[in-house]
Amino acid sequence: MSIVERKERQRAERYYLIVTTARELAEAEGWDAVTTRRLAGLIDYSQPVLYSHFKNKAEIMAAVATKGFEELAARLEAETLNADAGPQMLRKICAAYLEFADSRPVVYEAMFVLPTKIKFASEETPSALRAAFAAFVKAIGPDRQESVFSAELLWSALHGLVVLMQSERIPAIGAEDRLNLLVRKFSADGV
Amino acid sequence: MSIVERKERQRAERYYLIVTTARELAEAEGWDAVTTRRLAGLIDYSQPVLYSHFKNKAEIMAAVATKGFEELAARLEAETLNADAGPQMLRKICAAYLEFADSRPVVYEAMFVLPTKIKFASEETPSALRAAFAAFVKAIGPDRQESVFSAELLWSALHGLVVLMQSERIPAIGAEDRLNLLVRKFSADGV
DNA sequence: CACATAATCTAGCGTCGCTAGAATCGAACG
DNA sequence: CGTTCGATTCTAGCGACGCTAGATTATGTG
Predict the structure, then answer these.
(1) What CATH number has the domain bearing residue A150?
(2) Do A160 and B155 contact (CB within 8 A), yes or no?
(3) Does B164 share its domain with B81?
(4) Domain total in chain A
(5) Confidence bin at A140 (pLDDT 50/70/90)
(6) Given CB atoms, is B28 within the 8 Å cutoff of chain A?
(7) CA-CA distance, A83 to A141, in Å (whole number)?
(8) Are the C-beta atoms of A163 and A113 separated by less than 8 Å?
(9) What's the pTM value of the predicted model, to 2 decimals?
């Protein structure tokens, strides 16, 4: 079975190459620049090869998004380990989320803005995505009554900040102040 | 000058027809279905006529968005008149914002999600957009120290709720609870 | 009625996502 | 080693996109 194994390995390598190249091209010139022709050219294969790995272009972007979920989950979980529950952890998690969005804007876009077939908040949700959300719940306080709704609201606020800033609908100036406000409002006792 | 006036009036009517038809088609089948060919067909003119009114397709969508800003501003301002400042007004304004997004999802998308050349938070910002934002500031409490940052944060949270719900990234169930939480967090004293 | 200008259309360019069918490669076997 | 045949990959092309140049038609003017 050695030959078969080698072929499978080569296919896996090419799959990885496609996903990585798609991300790099998107990071360099935005998702609009990621056309199947350019992507195929960059990996030195013809267009149809892409379609032997992915059903369509959206699936390539979904693969980039999936890798992004894993990275985001890792970053958030790291923060839950390095701090006690409470305002400090909350702040670190929020800051880590914003930092991720800032450092990987196009991956963030694929994960949370562009149309996707990835299921959220369901049985089919990727485990990395569940883990990322769990970090929010933990930061909110896992045993509070409405902690899931609170976590969803916190995530919404962070996501709103990210996309409105990235699209220049709210000014870049004041990002720190808005983060401070957000943490204050979500760590206030009795709410 | 009667002939010239008639021509100008007819041009204005056709402009209005294009914008309205674009919105209706988007509402029926989404923005992807709004192609210049279909739009031209619906108004019984050829494609190039669109380009005698608008520089490109994005400008047509921007015109839909601009009308949306006016409607949103009107809805929010109505709420600032019908209630005293405080938690009640805050809740009404938030609810009105969410109701607008829910009733006109594709217009909302053109206003706040899709790439746009409309300037936010600058001197060139359309007056309707400024008025809508002013309603948030008023609801937060216009004379508070960080009321602009607070209003931006509130808007971010609302926008996050809207887009994450519309893209089915957070469940439809619980919308009321999340709104209640949001109002509580933003009306808590001392924050 | 003839003309000039403005309005509108036909036809086409380059690019997109995607795919059918031809061409090529490579492992297996006589 | 040479042939065969299935798997792999490529060439070429389809229909649709946004947009536009140049031909054509309509319209007001002398």
Answers:
(1) 1.10.357.10
(2) yes
(3) yes
(4) 2
(5) confident
(6) no
(7) 13
(8) yes
(9) 0.94
Contact B140, B147 (CB under 8 A): yes
pLDDT tens-place string over residues A108-133: 999 999 999 999 999 999 999 999 99
Among residues A181, A169, A164, the alpha carbon closest in space to that of B146 is found at A181
Closest CA to B100 of B63, B65, B150: B65
Considering the domain architecture, whether residues B36 and B74 belong to the same structural domain is answered as no
Is residue A95 domain-shared with residue A156, that is, in the same domain?
A: yes
Whole-number mean pLDDT of chain B? 93
B31: nearest Cα among B132, B116, B155, B119: B116
Provide the b/e sequence for B56-70 (b: ≥16 CB within 10 Å). Answer: ebeebbbbbbbbbbe
What is the CATH classification number for the domain harbouring B14? 1.10.10
In this structure, is residue B131 part of a structural domain?
A: yes
Q: Does A180 lie in the same domain as A154?
A: yes
Same domain, A66 and A156: yes
How many angstroms separate the CA of B51 from the C1' of D22?
Answer: 16
Distance from residue B61 (CA) to nucleotide C7 (C1'), in Å? Answer: 24
User: What's the average model confidence in pLDDT over A65-70?
Assistant: 97
Instruction: Tell me: do B49 and B68 sit in the same domain.
Output: no
pLDDT of A144 > 90? The answer is: no
Q: What is the domain extent for residue B47? A: 1-54
Q: Which one-letter DSSP state was computed for residue B45?
A: S
Please list every residue in chain A whose beta carbon sits closer than 8 Å to the beta carbon of residue B160: 155-161, 163
